[in-house]
């Protein structure tokens, strides 16, 4: 809603009808009130982030549809017990080139200078595959904190599988333990698939992209022909008993999002019998201005069905890891393993679907073969009570990969234990200094003093560890207990709440790793919000004002009305 809304005649007439005694504020007054609210909420959010122990950031670059101006979007995410808080920190105008140096300066100004964010609390920074923003984030926060968006990686795999991008499988083995997943290509350019592309010559080899283009032309025909669309709607009413609001329409593919291709094929195959009847009727009657498309044959339809079934696990995996509200980093390894299993066990019968199956297997191998060796992914999976060691791929190398994860998490737990021990000793020393009379002198027992000193020294040295493997007792107890049911706990942080007293050091590490995001979807949501605010009628909205409105929109009701 525009800031000038209070001065519009329709709005004033509505308010005067509902509440005649209410004095409607002017546009300057409304703007001033929003600015005051912005400063107030900004202070509250800043205090919340200062109180948070761990913060995860997501970043992305957006180009305004109407002004062609570029913006850097930044969102922050942190946990408060079992609850996840999110806020859109900035939509900052990029006035210079979008190279990594410029982006890093903007990041530093926004987060370090203006928000005074403590970088020690930042545990992860998620970006897409753009080389400029990845390098800027790594330089500003440290390479070990950067995470590549897994949703973009899966999107790129889908694009290559359906033929929107060239595919060259890598045969290079990994060199040593990775710190992150392999680099992927930059994001795809926006655009539409050329209508003349991938049309085989008469007698030429049939390709998946050629079949997809055939479906696209059919969908475009039904989008452009009112006669065809109404005939399809009537057939659904007559033969399927649907009402106006229940009738389905065909879905068109968008090149930059592979899942739109999957949804297009899924919807087409669902309506295929009716679509074919409509097209044949229009070809025979010749009452449509547009030329009806070629009919997709039963053999071609069978190919599309198998391709759709092969792509279904990839579509499900994308949905699983693209959540904005739920924990996602710990799901990456189990989701990828489930995806690879589903594709492997699918029995393809056509030549094209067999090719797609092999392409998907190769793409997933290249992109994710080393994911279980990346510490952040492995630790998050291990610390998720729904998965633990069962989330890892089960084969001959499982003990080594799980062992690496257990050792990594065990070292983190030991650090927490040592820090807690040092703090407890400091508090005891401080208490003795403040209240020396509280200590009652006791006579030393020389008979047992030597043994007592040895026991105390060994207890301090091995406190909280298994004597056999050096694994903290709390971590061992956590791993030995059975996993909780995944369906009962969509949010693993809730499953941790009853354990935080008994396993407090493991709980602290779990809070750190389960709070990390695996995708940059929140930044994309931010730009959707920005696009709705700065629409075609508000292209003159100042960048500073846009950033203020986007931030205010992201604040929860409990912040607004606290």
Task: Give the structure's gist in a few sentences.
With 562 residues, the chain is α/β, with parallel strands linked by helices.
Properties at a glance:
alpha/beta; 3 domains; five-stranded mixed sheet; 20 helices; globular
Strand order in the sheet with the most strands: 3-2-1-4-5
Low-confidence stretches: 167-176, 186-198
Sheet of most strands: 5 strands, mixed
Q: Approximately what portion of the residues adopt beta-strand conformation?
A: 5-15%
How much is the average pLDDT?
A: 86
Q: What string gives the helices and strands in order?
A: HHEEEHEHEHHHHHHHHHHHHHHHH
> What is the first-to-last residue Cα distance?
23 Å
- Would you count the extended β strands for me? 5
- Which of globular, elongated, flat, extended, rod-shaped describes the shape? globular
Structural class: alpha/beta
**Residue share in helices?**
40-55%
